[in-house]
Amino acid sequence: MSCLGNIIWIIFGGLSAFISWTIAGIICCITIVGFPFGLQCFKIALFSFAPFGKDLVNTGGSISFLANVIWLIFLGWELCFIHLASAFILCITIIGIPFAKQSLKLAKLSLSPFGYQIV
Question: Which of 93, 108, 112, 105 is nearest to 50 (CA)?
């Protein structure tokens, strides 16, 4: 079931989520200070490409809290808005509700990407 969900997800929203996280990663990797943020963006881009069958585990600490605050100020709210808009559009049909749940999971992750491990 997760394979079929991932295929449908790629068609209806996963590709755009993957592209948006990849662009954010490229923007972050321009500077040396932003390089850790860019690496996290690339990890999440792979997760956003096929999120079905994967889960997020919170392993945060104080350093990840500080990184999340910096992330939220500069880039996190834009990606969260994109995923919330996608979730709203996907909730219009009954078939899109599981995909909207995945988009909401990505919206939560876009607000605080540090301290989460993808399992």
Answer: 105
Domain boundaries, the chain: 2-118
Quote the CA–CA distance of 93 and 95 in Å, as a whole number: 5
One-letter amino acid for residue 71 of the chain: W
pTM flag (> 0.85):
yes
Instruction: Tell me the per-residue pLDDT of 7-40, one tens digit each, with 9 for 90 and over.
Output: 999 998 899 999 999 999 999 999 898 999 999 9
Alpha carbon distance 76, 87 (integer Å): 17
58 pLDDT above the threshold of 90: no
CA distance 84 to 62: 27
Secondary structure of residue 117 in the 3-state scheme: strand
